[in-house]
């Protein structure tokens, strides 16, 4: 058996991802800030200062660029840019513009996410995505981001994981305050249609700002695997939770594939993870092959015309050598898919930093740790290892 190193395709994105609310700190105008300070939810601790990346973004970018990464996906916070309905902050727009310019200065290509789970408190109070006029309000916000994304930004993500937004909306209607697990509950259909409409409206606004920007959105891929005889059950279970959102991207410039683990489906639905199987800090099954299945399934649904970008992939662990093992397995899957001809244009790990994982700081996904007292950035060996591939421009060796 021989092994082959797989070179990056021309222009391949190689980086790491973050989300504003999870790293910035003191995002006081967002709906999540309210949730974090409300009793009776699943939330274990509030975000508070987070990683203080609002002030220390340049340190984060310095570390990533110094390690060899060429791309950085980060989100801009709607609740900062439009803290009150119809009132846009020039100072916050200038802040995010400085981040774009800072990335470019360091040799990092910025991928901007316009919405990553959080919305302004005022938007949530008026009914969120399904309220009358919500699509137009989101489109207006996107148009207002022109000073941030109009130049130097080649890729824009409109909405991160819309299928999770629909799932969380469904849970809220049922009075369930827990964060969605693997084997997702039923999404709210009205929210599904609303976020699809918002995405399409946002694509138009971004293209009006700069037609050269490549626009897409990212899907949380649960890697639904059918047990023998459960293929039809699996397809029916998967469609409202995943495939409908993938299909909505058929006209986009790219689609983001985000995966961490798998969900096995039997005749009666999801099968619990077996006893004794290795689990991560999020209690998900350790399953590095997930990204390969997610890429191949997404390509089957959306077709070969839409390029794929892995916009999130990683593991919550406090054993960094295990993180390297996970990424080794995952990247072998990416390399194999590339060799099979899939149009994959990038890989961005989750996450650049240990961050606020929607209720707790305990699940550490980061390539970079940080001191909670001083906020000093502490790159892990996995960050050095993964960044080095950016210097060599090759993926791991895979069996021929």
Task: Describe the fold and architecture.
The protein is an alpha/beta fold and 400 residues long. Helices cover 40% and strands 18% of the residues. The strands form four sheets. The protein has an eight-stranded parallel β-barrel with strand order 2-3-4-5-6-8-11-12, surrounded by seven helices. The protein has a three-stranded mixed β-sheet with strand order 7-9-10, with helices on one face. A two-stranded antiparallel sheet has the order 1-15. Strand 11 (308-313), helix 13 and strand 12 (344-350) form a beta-alpha-beta unit. The radius of gyration is 20 Å and the shape is globular.
Using brief descriptors, characterize the structure shown:
GH; 15 strands; 14 helices; 400 residues; globular; eight-stranded parallel beta barrel; TIM Barrel; alpha/beta
Offer a quick outline of the entry:
By secondary structure, this protein is an alpha/beta fold.
What is the domain tally? 1
**What strand line-up does the widest sheet have?**
2-3-4-5-6-8-11-12
CATH architecture: Alpha-Beta Barrel
CATH topology assignment = TIM Barrel
Distance between the first and last residues' Cα: 7 Å
**Residue share in helices?**
40-55%
β-strand amount:
15-25%
Q: Major beta sheet, specifics?
A: 8 strands, parallel, barrel
Q: Which residue ranges are poorly predicted, with pLDDT under 50 across at least 5 consecutive positions? A: none
Structural class: alpha/beta
Calculate the mean pLDDT score and round it. 95
Q: What is the CA-based Rg, rounded? A: 20 Å
Oligomer: single chain
According to DSSP, the number of beta strands is 15
The rough form would be described as globular
Helix/strand order, N-terminal first? EEHHHEHHEHHHEHHEEHEEEHEHEEEHE
CATH H level, superfamily name: Glycosidases
InterPro entries: GH, Glyco_hydro_1, Glyco_hydro_1_AS
Protein name: Glycoside hydrolase family 1 protein
EC number: 3.2.1.-
Family: Belongs to the glycosyl hydrolase 1 family.
């Amino acid at each position: 058996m021989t092994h082959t190193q797989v070179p990056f395709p021309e222009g391949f994105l190689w980086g790491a991802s973050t989300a504003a609310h999870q790293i910035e700190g003191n995002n006081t105008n967002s709906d999540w800030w309210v949730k974090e300070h409300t009793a009776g939810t699943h939330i274990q601790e509030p975000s508070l200062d987070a990683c203080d990346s609002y002030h220390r973004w340049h340190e984060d970018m310095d570390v990533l660029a110094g390690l060899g990464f060429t791309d950085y996906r980060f989100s801009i916070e709607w609740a900062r840019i439009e803290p009150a309905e119809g009132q846009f902050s020039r100072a916050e727009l200038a802040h995010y513009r400085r981040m774009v310019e800072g990335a470019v200065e360091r040799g990092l290509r910025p991928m901007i996410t316009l919405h990553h789970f959080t919305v302004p408190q005022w938007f949530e109070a008026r009914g969120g995505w399904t309220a009358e006029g919500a699509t137009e309000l989101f489109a207006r916000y996107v148009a207002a981001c022109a000073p941030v994304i109009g130049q130097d930004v080649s890729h824009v993500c409109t909405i991160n994981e819309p299928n999770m937004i629909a799932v969380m909306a469904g849970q809220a209607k049922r009075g369930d305050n827990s964060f969605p697990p693997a084997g997702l509950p039923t999404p709210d259909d009205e929210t599904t249609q609303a976020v699809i409409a918002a995405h399409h409206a946002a694509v138009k606004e971004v293209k009006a700002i700069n037609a050269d920007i490549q626009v897409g959105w990212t899907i949380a891929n649960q890697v639904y695997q059918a047990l023998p005889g459960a293929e039809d059950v699996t397809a029916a279970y998967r469609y409202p939770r995943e495939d409908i959102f993938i299909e909505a991207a058929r006209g986009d410039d790219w689609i983001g594939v985000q995966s961490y683990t798998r969900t096995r489906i039997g005749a009666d639905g999801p099968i619990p993870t077996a006893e004794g199987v290795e689990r991560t800090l999020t209690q998900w099954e350790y399953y590095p092959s997930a990204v390969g299945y997610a890429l191949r399934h997404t390509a089957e649904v959306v077709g070969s015309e839409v390029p794929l970008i892995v916009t999130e992939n990683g593991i919550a662990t406090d054993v960094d050598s295990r993180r390297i093992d996970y990424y080794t397995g995952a990247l072998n899957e990416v390399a194999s898919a590339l060799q099979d001809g899939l149009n994959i244009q990038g890989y961005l790990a989750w996450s650049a930093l240990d961050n606020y994982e929607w209720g707790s700081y305990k699940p550490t996904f980061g390539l970079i740790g940080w001191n909670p007292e001083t906020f000093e950035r502490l790159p892990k060996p996995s960050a050095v290892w993964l960044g080095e591939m950016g210097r060599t421009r090759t993926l791991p060796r895979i069996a021929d």
